[in-house]
Design brief:
Chain A has about 220 residues and is mostly helical. Chain A contains nine helices and no strands. Chain A has one domain. The relative contact order of chain A is 0.24. Chain B is mostly helical and about 400 residues long. Chain B has 18 helices and four strands. A two-stranded parallel sheet of chain B has the order 1-2. A two-stranded antiparallel sheet of chain B has the order 3-4. Classes of the chains: A mainly alpha (about 220), B mainly alpha (about 400). Chains A and B meet through helix 1 and helix 9 of A and helix 6 and helix 10 of B.
Chain lengths: ~220, ~400
């Protein structure tokens, strides 16, 4: 593959990412916004969490990029297992959101004797990145419309590396649209704001769970 | 209906002459609003318009005469809540023979616009310049209540009156306020204070999901009032599930919980539009304040508030919470006159009755314009049921 065709492909991916970024934000917004709003405040802390989220999302993109190239364009377009995967991803997303919103991992650690120290010396340690990584990865392999468009195009490329590059640059184009989420770090973290974010996350988890189960049930019933 | 739990001030707060004089502008406004009814060819329409014009003017007169607000507003509001579905359903049955709307009619933009959808339009419109509602932006022959007209009217009134929309204009709130008025005492008296945060969470969730799915999620999945208005035709498992959710939410939030708590539970603990309206209280000039020098912390206002918009802490700070809808229940219940109507930027002691008058002229004008026409139409429909043409 020549440098020229690689550049053209990267340019196309970047343009596609920029153009479809608002739809990506709209698709991932229900997951990102309540989750980030419930995190400890500050632009710096949010930058770290958003960075982890986007990193995990990139990993999901690259995994999908590799899969579509290896399988050809069948995965995004006509692969019969697509709905299984989509349903399973939605259910996992629901479980992750619900776990984060109810503070289940934290409670489990507390039960295991790893609760917060009585006296905190120095700055409070950053919250574990598991939530950011899980939600980022699961939204990264979600079949949103821009993702499918990019998948079809990446599958037509000449090599695996070109497909991965296409998805990586596409990711950069879409990630720009996520930067405004950093401004949420300026929102004052009152207990009310955190409670609202957690309740919203539970409602959204219900939605994703219901939606995922519906997809799986339809798949089972109609084949 | 049981008598109001809100104490009423002395019957003669103001003399008859002064009360009539203060009512005169509203009487003229009522005449103006019901002019189309008075000019209608049908005698029933003319009679309905006259009855409602007198009804609205009489209630306003009572507000002026007694100095109380909540009780008289509630008569109107409950009548609106109970009669709106009658007129609406009758119109749907006349137009298409069913309360359900087929998907093809929705796609062609025949769905009447409902103000509940407004918060869900903003993010998709900003991100993709798309309106996620199957209506027409400008009025058409088949649907005069276009999106632009409804949003314009709502915005103008909300800027002037803030969350008072929920107490003087909402077509739905009166249904649960009616149910809440039935029992003499609440069976459930202790409610988790975190419940008042749920509308904000529902607002956040439906706004985000509406942007993600490109559909008004609250309307398609969560609106309890679909039960008594219009819903998607049940043709598959999905629409059946939607209908089941509508009915369940209606029975729990609009009927059962108001009967048990004597609160407007759908409005106070669920409605995302109410939460959205609350934001406008920040920029609106009218508010309820508590004079700390008169307040004896008796808690009567806390119990009177139908949406839990007052806490002991907020009273201590001399104000209500952001979700106050200015119904006047707290002011009317206060025996020490510590709860007062107030115009922002003026001293707290600066003639609260004048602040109340300024507010009520706007609020009652809105009530007459929106609710009055609905009442008149529904009344005419009911008369037609009894006395066919």
């Amino acid at each position: 593959m020549t440098l020229l065709s690689l550049s053209a492909s990267a340019g196309e991916a970047l343009a596609l990412g920029f153009a479809t970024g608002p739809v990506c934000v709209a698709t991932c917004g229900p997951v990102v916004l309540p989750w980030i709003l419930a995190q400890p405040g500050g632009v710096r802390g949010h930058s770290r969490q958003l960075g982890l989220f986007l990193g995990a999302r990139l990993a999901g993109y690259l995994l999908f990029g590799a899969a579509v190239w290896l399988a050809g364009a069948a995965i995004p377009r006509a692969w019969t297992g697509r709905s299984w995967l989509l349903g399973a991803v939605q259910v996992l997303l629901a479980l992750s959101l619900a776990a984060f919103a109810t503070g289940w991992p934290r409670r489990r650690r507390a039960v295991a004797g790893q609760s917060q120290p009585l006296v905190q010396i120095g700055a409070q340690p950053a919250s574990p990145p598991r939530g950011a990584l899980a939600l980022g990865f699961l939204t990264g392999i979600n079949f949103c419309p821009p993702f499918l468009v990019a998948g079809v195009r990446a599958a037509q490329l000449a090599s695996l590396s070109a497909s991965l590059l296409f998805f990586a640059v596409f990711f950069v184009g879409t990630a720009v649209w996520f930067l405004p989420f950093l401004s949420l770090g300026l929102v004052r973290r009152t207990p009310a704001v955190v409670t609202v974010a957690r309740i919203a996350a539970i409602l959204l988890a219900c939605w994703y769970g219901f939606s995922g189960l519906l997809i799986l049930i339809e798949r089972i019933v109609y084949g | 209906m049981a008598s109001s739990s809100v104490p009423v001030r002395p019957a003669a707060f103001r003399g008859v002459g002064r009360s009539l004089l203060l009512t005169l502008p509203m009487a003229l406004w009522s005449l103006l609003m019901f002019t189309p009814a008075f000019l209608h060819a049908s005698g029933v329409a003319r009679a309905s318009g006259a009855v409602v014009a007198v009804f609205m003017t009489a209630l306003f007169y009572q507000m002026m005469r007694t100095g109380t607000t909540y009780r008289w507003r509630r008569y109107f509001f409950v009548a609106l809540g109970m009669l709106f579905p009658v007129g609406f359903i009758a119109a749907l049955l006349a137009a298409r023979g069913s309360m359900s709307i087929p998907i093809e009619r929705m796609v062609s933009g025949d769905t009447p616009f409902c103000f509940m959808v407004i918060p869900m339009l903003i993010v998709p419109a900003a991100l993709t310049r798309t309106l996620v509602f199957p209506g027409s932006i400008l009025p058409t022959a088949s649907n005069p209540h276009s999106i632009a007209v409804m949003i314009g009217l709502w915005l103008a009134m909300t800027l002037v009156l803030g969350k008072a929309w929920c107490a003087y204009a909402c077509f739905f709130g009166g249904i649960e306020e009616g149910f809440a008025a039935f029992p003499k005492r609440a069976k459930i008296r202790s409610l988790d204070p975190r419940l008042r945060l749920v509308p904000w969470a529902v607002l956040l969730a439906v706004v985000l999901l509406s942007a993600a799915l490109f559909e008004p999620v609250y309307c398609t999945w969560l609106c309890p009032f679909k039960t008594v208005t219009e819903f998607a035709a049940v043709r598959n498992v999905e629409t059946a599930a939607q209908m089941a959710i509508f009915v369940a939410l209606f029975l729990v939030l609009v009927v059962a919980l108001p009967l048990l708590t004597k609160k407007r539970t759908q409005c106070g603990f669920f409605c995302p539009f109410g939460a959205f309206q609350s934001l406008f209280n920040k920029i609106n000039v009218f508010e309820i304040r508590f004079d700390r020098q008169k307040c004896v912390d008796c808690g009567l206002c806390l119990h009177a508030c139908p949406t839990m918009a007052i806490t002991a802490e907020s009273v201590h700070e001399g104000k209500t919470l952001l979700n106050c809808m200015k119904c006047g229940a707290c002011v009317d219940s206060c025996k020490k006159d510590a709860a007062v109507w107030h115009v922002k930027g003026t001293p707290l002691t600066a003639k609260p009755e004048r602040a109340r008058l300024l507010f009520l002229y706007g609020a009652w004008a809105m009530a007459t314009m929106f609710g009055g026409s609905v009442l008149a139409n529904s009344l005419a429909t009911m008369i037609h049921f009894v006395i066919p043409k």
